[in-house]
Amino acid sequence: MESPLLENNEDEKQLSYHVKRFGHESKNLWQLAGPTILTCICNYSLGALTQTFVGLVADLHLAAFSVENSVIAGLAYGLLLGMGSALETLCGQAYGAGQIRMLGVYMQRSWVILITTAILLLPLYIWSPPILKLMGQTTQISNAAGKFALWMIPQLFAYAMNFPIQKFLQAQGKVLVMLWVSAGVLVLHVCFSWLLILKLGWGLAGAAIILNTSWWLIVILQLFYIFITKSDGAWNGFTWLAFADLFGFVKLSLASAVMLCLEFWYLMILIAIVGRLENPLIPVDAMSICMNINGWEAMIAIGFNAAISVRVSNELGAGDFNAAKFSVLVVSITSVSIGVLAMIVVLSTKDYFPYLFTTSVEVANEATKLAALLGVTVLLNSLQPVLSGVAIGAGWQSLVAYINVGCYYVVGLPAGIILGFTLRFGAEGIWSGMIAGIVLQTIILIVVTSITNWKKEAEQAESRVRKWGGSTSHDQ
């Protein structure tokens, strides 16, 4: 029989091992998530800062820019980002399996699909005035936003090029390249926005020139890096293989798009529904303030979404299913801890943060009332995107798309409408109902992740790499 002292030593060794392992995995995650979060903030700031400069010129310019950026470009952004996310599964698993050469082929296939999608989206830009009028915008704003949308068509194709490039670099852990490019472009963007929009008085035309140029500059600089360095063998030049097996690629891309768009649009719909309330001005302004704060906090979640997607896909591709499982545990604990901290900050500053965005006491008071719901939302949004990232890394996009439809649009949306309009709880009722959808989706994803056979997932990853990239490293 072992002595208690030996048992204690063994327990201490086990604890020390798990702490070191947690610390090592946490370091891996932060090396991916940190630069990705900052890159997201830089890219998000391109539109946000341009909007600020445009708002200093004229109210109509501000309205036109806001409508085009949130409705027309927002729709295209969500769809193309979703389709590009298929690369997170394929590039990540191929990289983990040692099939580095296939990353460049996958990126080119994604370019073919996303550029084709961008061409199909052109009618949305060309005929945006009547579309916006149907959505309830005034003729004046619709015409101004429609004219601006035509000028922003180059940005649409920059999105189609950029998202595959980003997933290609993320899968290899080359996130610092993305950060330096985005940060450098942002500095130039601010300087030239001031010059063209304010100093030279070019207004919306200046905004279009600088925004299109900035997005294409990001694409070109990233491509220069890839072409010059060959990305450690991941880039071997253009190839006709980009057009091979496009059907399977389109299928996964569409599943990724549906999955992410259903999430991306869900809280955007919230403001539109609140706008249907009686006397909607104050609740819409208050909700916009809360969504603004939620949007900035979401940049952290997006960073962890990308990081866990890369970690899971890399480890499954390498056949190390235990490492993939452990990575999910570490990122869940980390992101929930950040979510709890964010919720505490929101609740403790609920009487103050509204005044950062408004001088209206009525709007500030309404935002304060909504602060509890905002706190719950930022907590849920710390874990839910991470679980979505696990799904992307493992290739579960189709399953999660079905889950999202059921939880968000069959349960959450109707619950919000009933609470807000039928039971007359107003904006708080609408948001509460929609939070119920997020809660249900998060619970289901926790259950799915918990009961997952990770060994089987690793085998499926190997099969996927075989199908689209030849033999895995285990055979070499």
TrEMBL record:
Protein's membrane topology: Multi-pass membrane protein
Protein name (Swiss-Prot/TrEMBL): Protein DETOXIFICATION
Pfam families from the UniProt entry: MatE
Any one GO biological process: xenobiotic detoxification by transmembrane export across the plasma membrane
Native source organism of the sequence: Psophocarpus tetragonolobus (Winged bean)
The keyword Membrane is annotated on this UniProt entry: yes
Record keywords, A-Z: Membrane, Transmembrane, Transmembrane helix
Subcellular compartments: Membrane
